[in-house]
Amino acid sequence: MIPTRLRAALLCPVLAGALALGGCASSQGPGASVDPLEPMNRAVFAFNDTLDQYALKPAATAYRDYVPETFRFVAGNMFENLRDVWTSVNNLLQGKPGRAASDFGRVVVNTTFGFIGMGDVASEIGFPKHREDFGQTLGVWGMPTGPYLVLPFFGPSNFRDGAGLALDSYADPMASLVGDVPTRNTAYGIRLLDARAGLLQAGGLMDDIALDRYLFMRDGYLQRRRSLVYDGDPPPTDDGYDDSWLDEE
Q1: In this structure, is residue 61 part of a structural domain?
Q2: How many CA atoms lie within 13 A of 87 on its CB side?
Q3: pLDDT given at position 180
Q4: Domain region containing 161
Q5: Alpha-carbon distance 7 to 169, whole Å?
Q6: For residue 233, what pLDDT is reported?
Q7: pLDDT given for residue 203 in this prediction
Q8: Which percentage of the chain shows pLDDT scores above 90?
């Protein structure tokens, strides 16, 4: 498992290299405006897909099938409780103090009455769950997405979300709360398996309906991220993409 600080450091040269390639890349397909790096992205997508098929997916399947459901339920709740901390910070940065207070309330309630986050008491008593990251915060601040970008190991992204992911990784509460490196890396591994196990059914659906898995993933990611930045109510565009970065001439 890649340590948090190292993950943040790895993203910087990846983004810098992609930016350099973006200056000379060309594409002729209908996705050229949002995916000028498509040849490179497809190569990285193929690498990630192979890694997933032969390592991550089998491990996640074993985790789902052989690890007791109670353990998976508790582990998932604890990871989500930590995620709520950063969600609260991002909602505050986005100018949503009500949501930020609600998310912080979730952390307090689940940490105290939910036995350090093992249970999700907050949802049961009316604290809704949100998911915010720094990429969304940058979008709310008006930063354009930039070209679509597939990151090694991390998957679909764009220049804005890649920059946000670097800070998300650096600010991960797990790094501060778990001082023992082997224990922390084990927790990272369990979190990764738990997240991948939750996508097993969706992955099977994509295999069944997608003629081009790369395009299916790209279009779904871009539309979902746009929706998240605008809290589910994005302004209309001609092609469904945020390609405002192309107007900066």
Answers
A1: yes
A2: 21
A3: 85
A4: 4-17+36-231
A5: 7
A6: 87
A7: 67
A8: 67
Question: Looking at the DSSP assignment, which residues form a beta bridge with residue 150?
Answer: 156
**149 in a domain, yes or no?**
yes
**Side chain identity at residue 213, one-letter code:** R
Number of domains in the chain: 1
Under 8 Å between Cβ of 66 and 58: no
Instruction: List all residues 6 or more positions away from 138 whose beta carbon is below 8 Å from its beta carbon.
Output: 160, 161, 163, 164
Higher pLDDT, 103 or 181: 103
Q: Quick check: 193 and 60 in contact, CB under 8 A?
A: yes
- Could you tell me if residue 236 is inside a domain? no
Token pair recorded at residue 118: 């093992």
List, for residues 63-105, the tens digit of each pLDDT value. Answer: 999 999 999 999 999 999 999 999 999 999 999 999 999 999 9
CB–CB of 100/236 below 8 Å?
no
CB distance 95 to 51 below 8 Å: no
**DSSP secondary structure of 16-80:** HHHHHHHTT----STTTTT-TTHHHHHHHHHHHHHHIIIIIHHHHHHHHHHS-HHHHHHHHHHHH
Listed in sequence order, the DSSP H helices in the chain are 4-22, 38-51, 57-66, 69-93, 97-112, 121-124, 134-140, 159-170, 173-177, 181-197, 200-209, 213-229
Residue 158 included in any domain? yes
The type of residue at 119 is G
Exposure string for 215-232, b = 16+ CB within 10 A, e = fewer: bebbbebbeebbebbeee
